[in-house]
């Protein structure tokens, strides 16, 4: 039992309930309050359908990569390679299309398979070689950065990117909704269904909750952990593909910043609706909080450095709320 849990045992039942509600719903209340405040301060620019659509569109890639990371975190591991992996896959898909003249669908399938392979490598290093996931994925991510610079010679791949590839991210093929939002909804919805509504999802949660008990129950813990890394790798690859389509180029470090954003969303989501448990819906809400916060700052002309300061503060707050939720659950 943690020190926080011991302290919670000294609180009255009413105080415990109040803390529990705060830990579960503070993020949602904060999101609603932030939207209302920005709407009041900037009624012409912020609370519009176009702006909300723009926020979802801009945040969609962060939501995809964060949703994949959530699966790795649910099984009890961390994947620090996702940002570097997304950058590499953005370069790889543009290179396959421009330099190797591969059809766009073929290039996308190859890159998604490469993302799954990287996830598999991460999973095998962690489960079979028994390297801590932080060290393993950070090392793999560093290797991926080197491969990205080697593949592109440090020069962005810009010329010759076909319009059809750009429309993958910039187009609106379904009822005028930006493609990135549709793809994000499919990915996040699919992962939510996998974790919350399938037998495999129950195994995933069991492994994250208590690996020893899961192993005694006959669950192949290593297989489930590897699956979490593979899903994380595929989502990182998809993010890299969509980012390259949005930018119209492949750049060696284009997606590196998604690492911090994804972790902030995941940990912020763990403090939402549940007592410090990681879940896909929570990650979606966490990503929305970050997206609307940045959007509001941009509307009011806040300097760029403030976004980094705020993102770091959000991550610290998210971990704190998650720890509070767990300590309350243990008490």
From TrEMBL:
Protein name: Ribose ABC transporter permease
Membrane topology: Multi-pass membrane protein
Cell membrane among keywords: yes
Record GO terms (molecular function): transmembrane transporter activity
InterPro entries hit by this protein: ABC_transp_permease
Keywords in alphabetical order: Cell membrane, Membrane, Transmembrane, Transmembrane helix
GO cellular component: plasma membrane
Location in the cell: Cell membrane
Broad class of where this protein is predominantly found: membrane
Pfam annotation, one family: BPD_transp_2
Originating gene: rbsC
Coiled coil: none
Spans traversing the lipid bilayer: 21-43, 55-75, 82-98, 104-126, 133-153, 173-195, 226-245, 257-273, 280-302, 308-329
């Amino acid at each position: 039992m943690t020190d926080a849990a011991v302290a919670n045992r000294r609180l009255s039942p009413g105080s415990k309930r109040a803390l529990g509600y705060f830990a579960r719903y503070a993020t949602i209340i904060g999101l609603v309050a932030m939207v209302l405040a920005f709407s009041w301060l900037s009624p012409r620019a912020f609370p519009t359908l176009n702006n909300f659509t723009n926020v979802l569109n801009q945040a969609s890639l962060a939501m995809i990569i964060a949703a994949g990371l959530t699966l790795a975190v649910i099984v009890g591991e961390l994947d620090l390679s996702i940002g570097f992996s997304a950058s590499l896959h953005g370069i790889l898909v543009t290179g396959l299309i421009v330099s190797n003249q591969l059809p766009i669908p073929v290039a996308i399938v190859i890159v998604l398979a490469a993302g799954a392979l990287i996830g598999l490598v991460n999973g095998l290093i962690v489960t079979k070689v028994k390297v801590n996931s932080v060290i393993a994925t950070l090392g793999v991510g560093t290797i991926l950065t080197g491969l990205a610079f080697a593949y592109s010679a440090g020069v962005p791949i810009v010329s010759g990117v076909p319009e059809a590839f750009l429309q993958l991210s910039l187009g609106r093929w379904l009822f005028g909704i930006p493609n990135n939002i549709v793809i994000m909804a499919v990915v996040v919805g699919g992962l939510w269904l996998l974790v919350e509504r399938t037998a495999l999802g129950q195994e995933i949660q069991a492994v994250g909750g208590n690996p020893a008990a899961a192993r005694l129950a006959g669950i192949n813990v290593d297989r489930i952990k590897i699956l979490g890394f593979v899903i994380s790798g595929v989502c990182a690859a998809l993010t890299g593909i969509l980012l390259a389509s949005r930018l119209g180029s492949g750049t060696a470090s284009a997606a590196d910043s998604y690492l911090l954003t994804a972790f902030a969303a995941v940990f912020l989501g763990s403090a939402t609706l549940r007592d410090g448990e990681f879940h896909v819906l929570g990650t979606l809400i966490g990503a929305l909080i970050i997206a609307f916060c940045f959007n509001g700052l941009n509307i009011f002309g806040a300097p760029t450095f403030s976004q980094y300061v705020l993102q770091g503060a959000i991550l610290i707050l998210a971990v704190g709320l998650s720890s509070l939720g767990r300590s309350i659950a243990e008490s």
